[in-house]
């Protein structure tokens, strides 16, 4: 394996300065970067920027109307966070589906975002919860809505000198978030379909507002299914709504055949899972 | 050589101290695994752990096309090639063939590339960085040729068999129910956790010693001798600790050893060839994919009266072991059921895909899956319990198989079926799942469904037909002049327990403690050719030889114990140390003798295909997610007849491990190909079950001894592999009402079948 | 770069490329070959070690991230019991085993042995977590460690046995 030079700054400002100077491949927990380097997929990085010592990028904070996650927050930290478990259990559920303990101990939320895999398991949750991604550089910080962050196949809105530094998930009263990952096995599986659905409704039977449906592994990037969101918007979770959403989602997504699954399966199962989530919410 | 290396190779036996305190579980359940402490402390040395100072690193340049003419191998003139060595077909001193059944597979391609990832050239360099640079500067120039990727379109058969018994036309004439089926099973990767690995070290006598991860030292030995033109002594094969085999290290190590040895000759240094996972999956053998077409006839009074079976296996680009894999698949394809009229036609076809080879079960899992699917579908058609139907049809003593073999003894089909079904409460659970199913149909789309399924299987113990006679295995026991007892066999430990059960069997035969028996390291310079460690033959065949050798040694020593020079006379245990002092070393070589009354004609395929069969049942319970088709296999009850249990813990371990491999085969293990290249060529894409996917497995060991072996033991390793997949697929059917005819029964196939079934329903 | 860290309680200082995998540093620079490589991409868990007590795949950790931290490998398992460091020069015996290793030996949790070092460390981390040793909890704790030999049954039994002995020992102390 090629072993490119690596710098390990202790301060975020130093990391920004290094990135401004020359191109570096940032590495957080290494669970994607080292796999890519060992497999020789893509050109080897010229140099690595090791972020692991940047404690400024750690921590989960509750600031009254939002949860804020440092980019280096590991999946294990999310799973162990009582504030997360109480306020955003779907995110905890998603973190628990990633790899197994070894990966969860090193893999980070920021890494999942920047790696920009269309199958990134946390990303549909970020889409469904209107998360914003705070990125920084020597030029300062800016905030990118999750819905605008992934721009194409493994492409992001990050400039080459920018790092993901924080993730902010607004907390909304009466919001429900559901998560479902379909993989080949119960641990260590890259998703075939991964889905997060959120809505706001003060009652169980009442109409849904602010419906968000985030999906992974059904397009070249994590997407929101906005046509299906529109079908659900303002509707109560009844059988007719579920049936229409089912038809809408199957028509809206354009997945592909690949090594893990088939387009037909992904389309059918995304729609069936959505139908189930609506049915469960409606309690019928 | 450093102290560490020499000790690593010497593999002195682990002595479990006789005075160690008794610790819990171990005592009544068999002696502790002999090499266990070394494995548990990380001190057992696998091939990649061996250090040879000055060793170079080797790599393989492989084809990137399924079929092509090789026009040239070009070395970038800008690179300094004096710092590395490159080996091509022109550098092979002897025949450019990997020794096997046919002489069709080259060690390195000379002119025609026949599959993707085929070895074309070899490179070795003093360090990995330079090796990587050199490899990147080798170009192979080719001209593409049309590729045959579908075995049904292939015109070249590696082997074919025809077996007929009774009158098939009369059988179907008598049938009131005929059930047709076509079943397809895909590739399966052995996925031992230690990749293939081999280190070749030049010997002073001009020969080569290879240290590697392997099952069959004498296969490798013969391949080296033949193609490198070496004498017996010049070719030395030493097994390192081996991290799993399952058939995947049966024939493949021969080509890897040849590659390492060719490079070692070229650079005159040790060369390490340690595959990474990607290369291991892309290039090494898999379980043969197969298409089985099956037609069964049942009489009005419910007897199985006709089986017409056509089997097509995909051999891949070279013959390897395909004829014998196909043979075993053919012989087991009727399943463990008596049927008077049987016709079986089978063929193994050449395609431009990587060669397929040995994998636990060796052809039988493919065809027994089809056989069991047929039985389950017939039971459904008859409206009968699949358990009751099997009870009626299964082999009993006195029945004859399609080759005319009369099953005289050691027939435990009924026993394993009943014990498995009882332990799993098969009928009680099935009644409940039937109620659940009816309730679901009334109540709309449910979230999940529970199901139970059953399978029964058989597995011929040891080599097929006259195979054991041709092998003529040899095992030895030696009482050294120093009073140490050593068992000398070429059988290998790869996790299944060889190093533990041989001292155990020898100690019992000699009447000494297990710690008094040593096992010689597997090194062709020391141990005889006991045949390959395959075909579930080791405990039965080689174990039998060792016991007989020990019985002879004991008789020799005890007969001279009356001599005044030795002392008072007495049992072997009392006198062997004195005997050694007085008489010096005594070595007993035990050659295989054909089992009496076992006779097979290889040309007509009539007679006793196997000296004995092992019998197995599996009862699986599953939950199927009806939204996604995901299958969770909750439990498997496995009942396996092994003749005689030598070591309960190790035997259960074999059944549990084989059962999970079968569950993986049934549910998630899949290789897709594009243009003859495996797409699932990494651990991230070829998935095997994790602990969370594995069922609870309950093992029931059944003993129906085989009289031909002194201890009555038959094989164990392969039995569970034959029954797991059909049991799981039957359970999926019990849960969902749909039959999945192809393996794996993936969520994709299940959802497609459920959607098709929904579409047919009037109120969908 | 120069990195300093603890391996099995001994401090080591090395000058190695910062991007080198912890796995390669252990096996090649330090000669600790008990840690195995099965896939090189974090799928099989054969290279599992403890980093500050947590399981990690050492094939996915660059050594620059180990600087200042503590690593435990299979070679360090006996240290808690005051056992010596095992080595290939002296073949291991039963008395070299700590209670969890012994439980694996007795229950039949090791077959071919190649997943065993990683499996032991996952088991060790699980026992240290104090979680109740239910079947499901043990399965989750070893879900990142693939075994192709055992069907996991006897590995789970071994870890449960290790947990019950640990509980007995602790009860004895209390």
What report would you give on this structure?
- The complex is a heterotrimer of chains A (284), B (764) and C (174).
- Chain A is of the alpha+beta class and 284 residues long.
- Chain A contains 12 helices and 14 strands.
- In chain A, strand 8 (150-152) and strand 9 (155-156) form a beta hairpin.
- The N and C termini of chain A lie far apart (55 Å).
- With 764 residues, chain B is α+β, with helices and mostly antiparallel strands.
- Chain B is built from 19 helices and 28 strands.
- Helix content of chain C is 34%, strand content 13%.
- By secondary structure, chain C is an alpha+beta fold.
- Chain C has helices at 22-29, 99-107, 116-129, 135-141, 153-173; strands at 2-7, 10-15, 48-51, 54-57, 70-72.
- In chain C, strands 2-1-5-3-4 form a 5-stranded mixed beta sheet, covered by helices on one side.
- Chains in contact: A-B, A-C, B-C.
- Chains B and C meet through helix 1, helix 2 and helix 17 of B and helix 2, helix 3, helix 4 and helix 5 of C.
Short description:
Chain A has 284 residues and is of the alpha+beta class.
Lay out the secondary structure:
The complex is a heterotrimer of chains A (284), B (764) and C (174).
Chain A: E1 6-7, H1 12-21, E2 25-27, H2 33-39, E3 48-50, E4 60-63, E5 66-70, H3 75-80, H4 82-87, H5 89-96, H6 101-104, H7 109-115, H8 123-128, E6 132-137, E7 140-145, H9 146-149, E8 150-152, E9 155-156, E10 163-170, E11 175-182, E12 193-200, E13 209-216, E14 223-224, H10 226-232, H11 239-252, H12 263-282
Parallel strand pairs in A: 1-3, 2-3
Antiparallel strand pairs in A: 4-5, 5-10, 6-7, 6-10, 8-9, 11-12, 12-13, 13-14
Helix pairs in contact in A: 10-11, 11-12
Chain B: H1 3-10, H2 36-40, E1 56-62, E2 68-75, E3 85-87, E4 112-113, E5 119-125, H3 128-136, E6 138-144, E7 157-165, H4 168-174, E8 175-185, E9 197-202, E10 208-212, H5 217-228, E11 235-239, H6 252-267, E12 271-274, H7 277-283, E13 290-299, E14 304-316, H8 322-331, E15 342-350, H9 364-382, H10 386-393, H11 413-424, H12 426-443, E16 448-460, H13 467-471, E17 474-479, E18 485-488, H14 498-510, E19 517-519, H15 538-559, H16 572-583, E20 586-591, E21 600-601, E22 606-607, E23 613-625, E24 631-641, H17 648-667, E25 673-674, E26 677-678, E27 696-702, H18 719-736, E28 742-743, H19 747-760
Parallel strand pairs in B: 1-12, 8-28, 10-11, 14-15, 18-19, 24-27
Antiparallel strand pairs in B: 1-5, 2-4, 2-6, 3-5, 7-15, 8-13, 9-10, 9-12, 13-14, 16-23, 17-18, 17-20, 21-22, 23-24, 25-26
Chain C: E1 2-7, E2 10-15, H1 22-29, E3 48-51, E4 54-57, E5 70-72, H2 99-107, H3 116-129, H4 135-141, H5 153-173
Parallel strand pairs in C: 1-5
Antiparallel strand pairs in C: 1-2, 3-4, 3-5
Helix pairs in contact in C: 2-5, 3-5
């Amino acid at each position: 394996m090629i072993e490119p030079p690596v710098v390990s700054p202790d301060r975020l400002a130093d990391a920004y300065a290094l990135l401004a100077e020359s191109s570096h491949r940032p590495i957080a927990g290494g669970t994607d970067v080292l796999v890519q380097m060992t497999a020789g997929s893509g050109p080897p990085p010229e140099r690595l920027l090791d972020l692991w010592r940047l404690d400024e990028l750690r921590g989960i904070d509750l600031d009254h109307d939002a949860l804020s996650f440092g980019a280096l927050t590991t999946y294990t930290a999310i799973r162990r966070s009582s504030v997360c478990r109480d306020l955003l259990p779907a995110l905890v559920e998603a973190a628990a589906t990633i790899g197994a303990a070894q990966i969860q101990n090193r893999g980070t939320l920021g890494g999942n975002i920047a790696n920009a895999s269309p199958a990134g398991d946390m990303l549909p949750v970020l889409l469904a919860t209107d998360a914003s991604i705070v990125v920084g550089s020597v030029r300062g910080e800016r905030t990118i809505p999750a819905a605008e962050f992934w721009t194409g196949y493994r492409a992001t809105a990050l400039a080459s000198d920018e790092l993901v530094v924080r993730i902010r998930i607004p907390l909304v009263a009466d919001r429900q978030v559901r998560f479902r990952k379909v993989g080949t096995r119960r641990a260590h599986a890259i998703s075939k379909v991964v889905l997060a659905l959120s809505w706001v409704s003060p009652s169980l039977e009442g109409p849904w507002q602010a419906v968000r449906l985030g999906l992974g592994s059904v397009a070249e990037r994590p997407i929101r299914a906005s046509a299906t969101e529109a079908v659900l918007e303002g509707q109560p979770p009844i059988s007719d709504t579920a049936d229409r959403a089912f038809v809408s989602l199957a028509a809206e997504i354009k997945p592909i055949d690949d090594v893990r699954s088939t387009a037909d399966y992904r389309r059918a199962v995304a729609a069936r899972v959505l139908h189930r989530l609506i049915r469960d919410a409606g309690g019928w | 050589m450093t102290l560490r290396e020499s000790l690593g190779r010497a593999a002195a036996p682990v002595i479990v101290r006789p005075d160690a305190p008794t610790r819990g579980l171990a005592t009544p359940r068999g002696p502790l695994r002999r090499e266990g402490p070394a494995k548990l402390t990380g001190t057992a040395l696998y091939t990649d752990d061996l250090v040879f100072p000055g060793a170079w690193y080797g790599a393989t340049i492989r084809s990137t096309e399924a079929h092509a003419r090789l026009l040239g191998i070009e070395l970038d003139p800008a690179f300094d090639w004096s710092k590395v060595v490159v080996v091509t077909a022109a550098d092979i001193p002897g025949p450019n063939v990997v020794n096997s059944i046919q002489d069709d597979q080259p060690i390195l391609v000379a002119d025609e590339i026949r599959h993707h990832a085929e070895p074309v050239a070899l490179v070795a360099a003093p360090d990995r960085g330079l090796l990587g640079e050199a490899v990147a500067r080798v170009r192979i120039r080719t001209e593409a040729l049309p590729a045959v990727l579908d075995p049904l379109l292939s015109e070249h058969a590696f082997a074919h068999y025809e077996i007929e018994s009774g009158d098939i036309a009369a059988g179907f004439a008598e049938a009131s129910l005929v059930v047709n089926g076509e079943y397809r099973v895909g590739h399966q990767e052995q996925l031992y956790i230690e990749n293939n690995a081999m280190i070749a070290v030049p010997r002073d006598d001009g020969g080569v010693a290879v240290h590697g991860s392997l099952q069959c030292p004498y296969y490798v030995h013969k391949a080296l001798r033949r193609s490198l033109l070496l004498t017996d002594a010049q070719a030395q094969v030493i097994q390192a600790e081996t991290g799993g085999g399952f058939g995947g290290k049966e024939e493949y190590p021969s080509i890897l050893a040849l590659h390492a040895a060719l490079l070692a000759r070229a650079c005159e240094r040790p060369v390490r060839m340690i595959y990474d996972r990607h290369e291991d999956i892309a290039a090494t053998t898999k379980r043969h994919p197969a298409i089985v077409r099956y037609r069964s006839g049942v009489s009005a009074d419910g007897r199985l009266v006709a089986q017409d079976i056509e089997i097509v296996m995909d051999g891949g680009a070279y013959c390897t072991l395909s004829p014998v894999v196909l043979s075993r698949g053919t012989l087991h394809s009727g399943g463990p059921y008596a049927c008077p009229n049987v016709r079986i036609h089978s063929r193994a076809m050449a395609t431009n895909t990587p060669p397929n080879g040995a994998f636990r079960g060796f052809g039988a899992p493919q065809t027994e899956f089809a056989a069991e699917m047929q039985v389950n579908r017939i039971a459904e058609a008859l409206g009968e319990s699949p358990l009751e139907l099997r009870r009626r049809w299964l082999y009993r003593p006195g029945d004859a198989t399609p080759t005319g073999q009369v099953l005289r003894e050691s027939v435990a089909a009924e026993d394993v079926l009943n014990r498995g079904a009882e332990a799993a409460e098969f009928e009680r659970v099935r009644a409940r799942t039937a109620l659940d199913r009816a309730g679901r149909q009334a109540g709309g789309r449910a979230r999940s469904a529970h199901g139970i399924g059953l399978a029964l299987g058989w597995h011929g113990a040891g080599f097929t037909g006259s195979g054991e006679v041709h092998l003529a295995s040899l095992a030895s026991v030696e009482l050294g002049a120093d009073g140490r007892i050593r068992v000398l066999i070429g059988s290998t430990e790869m996790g299944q327990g060889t190093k533990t059960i041989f001292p155990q069997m020898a100690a019992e035969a000699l009447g000494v403690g297990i710690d008094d028996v040593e096992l010689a390291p597997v090194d062709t310079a020391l141990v005889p050719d006991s045949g390959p460690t395959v075909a579930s033959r080791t405990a039965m065949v080689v174990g039998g030889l060792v016991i007989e050798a020990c019985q002879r040694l004991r008789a020799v020593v005890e007969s001279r114990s009356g001599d005044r020079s030795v002392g008072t006379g007495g049992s072997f245990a009392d006198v062997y140390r004195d005997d050694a002092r007085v008489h010096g070393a005594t070595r007993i070589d035990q050659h295989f003798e054909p089992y009496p009354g076992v006779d097979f004609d290889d040309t007509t395929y009539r007679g006793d295909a196997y000296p004995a069969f092992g019998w197995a049942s599996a009862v699986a319970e599953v939950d199927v997610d009806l939204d996604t088709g995901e299958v969770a296999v909750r439990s498997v009850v496995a009942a396996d007849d092994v003749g005689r249990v030598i070591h309960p813990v190790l035997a259960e371990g074999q059944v549990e491990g084989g059962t999970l491999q079968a569950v993986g085969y049934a549910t998630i293990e899949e290789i897709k190909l594009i243009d003859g290249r495996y797409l699932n060529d990494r651990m991230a894409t070829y998935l095997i079950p994790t602990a969370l996917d594995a069922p609870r497995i309950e093992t029931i060991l059944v003993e129906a001894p085989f009289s031909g072996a002194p201890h009555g033991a038959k094989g164990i390793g392969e039995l569970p592999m034959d029954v797991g997949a059909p049991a799981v697929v039957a359970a999926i059917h019990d849960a969902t009402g749909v039959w999945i005819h192809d393996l794996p029964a993936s969520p994709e196939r299940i959802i497609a079948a459920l959607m098709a079934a929904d579409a047919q329903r009037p109120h969908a | 770069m120069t990195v300093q860290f603890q391996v099995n309680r001994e401090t080591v200082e090395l000058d190695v490329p910062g991007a080198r995998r912890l796995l390669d540093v252990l096996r090649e620079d330090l000669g600790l070959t008990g840690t195995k490589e099965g896939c090189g991409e974090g799928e099989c868990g054969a290279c599992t070690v403890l980093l500050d007590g947590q399981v990690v795949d050492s094939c996915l950790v660059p050594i620059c991230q180990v600087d200042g931290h503590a690593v435990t490998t299979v070679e360090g398992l006996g240290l808690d019991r005051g056992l010596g460091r095992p080595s290939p020069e002296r073949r291991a015996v039963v008395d070299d085993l700590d209670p969890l290793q012994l439980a694996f030996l007795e229950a039949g949790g090791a077959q071919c042995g190649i997943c065993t070092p990683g499996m032991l460390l996952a088991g060790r981390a699980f026992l240290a977590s104090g979680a109740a040793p239910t079947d499901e909890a043990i399965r989750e704790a070893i879900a990142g460690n693939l075994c192709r030999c055992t069907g996991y049954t006897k590995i789970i039994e071994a870890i449960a046995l290790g947990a019950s002995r640990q509980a007995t020992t602790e009860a004895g102390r209390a």
